[in-house]
Design goal:
By secondary structure, the chain is mainly beta. The protein has a domain at 324-332 and 345-613 and 636-643. The strands form six sheets. It has a 16-stranded parallel sheet that branches. An eleven-stranded parallel sheet has the order 3-6-16-19-22-25-29-33-37-41-45, covered by helices on one side. An eight-stranded parallel sheet has the order 2-4-7-17-20-23-26-30, covered by helices on one side. A hairpin with a 4-residue loop joins strand 46 (527-529) and strand 47. The protein is globular, with a radius of gyration of 23 Å. The termini are close together. 58% of the residues are buried. Residues 1-32, 149-154 and 640-658 have low confidence and may be disordered.
């Protein structure tokens, strides 16, 4: 069979909304297409991050269903009814002012948007939880989910054996059955955990769970990739599959899928998965309910844009996931602001949390005054977390954690261009592999004070292997040493890099011990740090000689601007306080506007940080630190204030026959 690959020109900005819909079926492996990281990262250690987020970009819906709902006090029934009768492709408009609601909002209608007049104008103060569980029992005030089926409770509506098509990058797989599977369905691929360390050899990939890091996955199956069905005997959108031969829209991510681990697949009935639902330009304040804010569950192609969530009181006990994403694929969280919660002890209070997520784009967001800002809490694969800023200045709690924490299984994710305190891969519950940190600016306790034990700039505890750390800028007064020793690994809170320490959790201590394989397998290239006061392109820091998943020493010190954006962003990159250089961070960036002693001049403030630092305090709140009067349309050119201009049709299409 002749296989034709169609090469499109550089894609438009990820948040561009008025895309013409172009459906292209790629026969064969997506790995055939050149990736931005080619020549720097070996193909076995990365995936196709350009596909993260809502496919084709977030749509702008221009038809309003019903009258604008004016602010009121009482039950959320009026809003929920308006959502339930809104036709697909339209939006429910909430007016400017404060809604004081006694129960929560339910967005459970496919292809419907709930839109406010701006996060600074439309305020939902929700004092009671929703009435629908959507598969996870934690209370919350705003559901974005379908309540059908059983997916997400260590079970599935449908399952099958995954009998062929294991190669990394392949889009062609074979299942033992296809009941209730349609073109466009979300499908989850998994396999059983490894019984010992590791694959292909000891010290390599070890998918293991010694705690609760597989929450909501099938039991004993912590490797979970989410995909979308492109064809299955038919390619008609929405049509029922007629074959067990399945083509996916994206390639298999992990390089360790094999028949000995009983690969499988599971999926929900069509009614179980919410598709194309969005929340835009409003605030959800869940403080009065003493509950979580937005939960997005069983969603594909869903989004939050221009949203502010607020939990303004400190929490002393319990388990909170203020904004939680569970069973989510190819969805976007962009141009938003998340405040709180603070805490009065080291408790399980997460500002943002992911469980069973693939292809999420978390881009251009502000995370403010949160004891655990962003926690990957259960299998999260192939996501992009990019150009977000974190600020915990003024937080009273002494237990403030790293900006990003890998807590449950996390593999093949990209962390690019973020500005935060530090990054931590812990081993309290599970292991992590093949994550990439690219062009981030870590500033230590300068803006994000902490007294927890994970204080190194990049903390990778035991069984955090095959990481790629490239082009980052790292500097703060609390980091005075370059790296902890490899043999044996040691705890070093003052280090730029801490690799392989056994950790402080008793389960992990008993299971792993110190791990020299973290340093053995990590790729470091082109990072600038204030201890070295230099950009390090050191061949000895590239694992070119290891037996499995080796990375050749890059032939050049030239780095691409981005590992997922094909061109500099336009609309959301522009702010009233200037348009930052792009790329904003890296060894090849000069003249940056952040303290040169900590950055060497290699870092500019990203748009989210400019928005945070220049937004006024909200007079409606007296919390400390003060909650910002956030407005996406006031901060970013495409933040919801006006419709973007439609892009021109693609040109210069080329094809090649393989």
């Amino acid at each position: 069979m002749t296989r034709t690959l169609i090469s499109l020109p550089a894609r438009w900005t990820r948040s561009q909304s008025l895309f013409p819909v172009i459906s292209v079926l790629l026969w064969g492996s997506s790995a055939c297409l050149a990736q931005p990281w080619s020549g720097i990262i070996a193909p076995s250690r990365a995936t196709q991050w350009a596909a993260a987020g809502v496919a084709g970009g977030i749509p702008v819906r221009t038809t309003q269903c019903g009258a604008t709902i004016s602010p009121y006090s009482g039950s959320a029934a009026a809003i929920n009814t308006a959502i339930s009768i809104c036709p697909a492709g339209q939006f429910v408009q909430l007016g400017s002012g404060t809604f004081t609601l006694s129960n929560g909002v339910e967005l459970s209608k496919n292809n419907v948007t709930v839109r406010g007049g701006g996060a600074d104008k439309t305020i939902l103060k929700i004092n009671g939880a929703t009435n629908v569980s959507c598969h996870i029992g934690d209370g919350r005030t705003f559901n974005v989910c379908s309540n059908g089926g059983n997916i997400g409770l260590d079970s599935a509506d449908n399952s099958a054996t995954w009998s062929a098509g294991y190669a990394q990058g392949t889009t062609a797989i074979t299942l033992s059955g296809h009941t209730n599977l349609n073109v466009g369905s979300t499908i989850w691929l998994d396999q059983t955990d490894d019984s010992s360390d590791g694959y292909p050899a000891r010290g390599d990939i070890w998918i293991a769970n010694w705690g609760a890091g597989d929450s909501y996955a099938r039991s004993g199956r912590g490797l979970v990739e989410g995909h979308v069905v492109a064809s299955c005997g038919t390619s008609t959108p929405g049509a029922a599959c007629t074959s067990n031969s399945i083509t996916l829209t994206s390639g298999v991510m992990m390089p360790n899928i094999r028949s000995s681990q009983s690969p499988g697949a599971w999926w929900g009935n069509p009614s179980s998965v919410l598709v194309g639902a969005g929340v835009e330009n409003l605030t959800v304040d869940s403080t009065g309910a003493q509950s979580n804010a937005i939960f997005m569950i069983n969603c594909t192609g869903c989004w939050l844009k221009g949203v502010r969530t607020v939990y303004s009181q400190a929490v002393s006990s319990g388990q909170f996931r203020i904004n939680n994403f569970l069973n989510v694929v190819n969805s976007s969280v962009v141009d938003s602001y998340f405040y709180g919660p603070q805490a009065t002890g080291l408790v399980s209070i997460y500002g943002i949390s992911t469980h069973i997520v693939s292809g999420l784009l978390f881009q251009n967001n502000i995370v403010h005054a949160s004891v655990n800002p962003f926690v990957i809490n259960s299998p999260t694969y192939g996501c992009v977390f990019a150009y977000n800023t974190f600020d915990n200045m003024g937080v009273a709690d002494s237990y403030s954690q790293p900006s990003f924490i890998l807590h449950g299984h996390a593999s093949m994710n990209l962390f690019e261009g973020n500005n935060g305190r530090n990054f931590s891969g812990d081993n309290i519950h599970t292991s992590h592999f093949f994550n990439t940190l690219f062009r981030n600016h870590f500033d230590g306790t300068v803006r994000n004070p902490s007294s927890t034990e994970a204080q190194a700039a990049t903390t990778l505890y035991a069984v955090q292997r095959f990481f790629n750390i490239i082009g980052n800028v790292i500097g703060a007064p609390n980091w005075t040493s370059y790296a902890s020793g490899q043999s044996p690994p040691a705890h070093c809170s003052s280090c730029v890099f801490e690799f392989g320490f056994q950790g402080t959790n008793s389960n992990a201590l008993a299971t792993t011990g110190n791990d020299t394989n973290v340093a053995r397998t990590v790729l470091r290239w082109g990072n600038w740090d204030a201890v070295s006061n230099a950009s390090r392109f050191v061949a000895a820091e590239v694992p070119s000689g290891i037996a499995n998943y080796a990375n050749p020493v890059p032939a050049s010190q030239t780095l691409p601007s981005s590992f997922y954006l094909p061109a500099p962003p336009t609309a959301w990159w522009k702010t009233p306080w200037g348009t930052p250089a792009f790329p904003p961070v890296g060894p090849d960036v000069n003249g940056g506007n952040i303290s040169t002693s900590a950055t060497g001049g290699h870092a500019f403030k990203i748009p989210a940080r400019l928005c945070f630092e220049n937004s006024a305090n909200d007079p409606a709140y007296s919390s400390s630190p003060r909650i910002k009067l956030f407005s996406a349309s006031g901060c970013y050119q495409d933040g919801g204030g006006s419709l973007p201009t439609a892009p021109a049709p693609p040109t210069n299409l080329t094809s090649s026959v393989h």
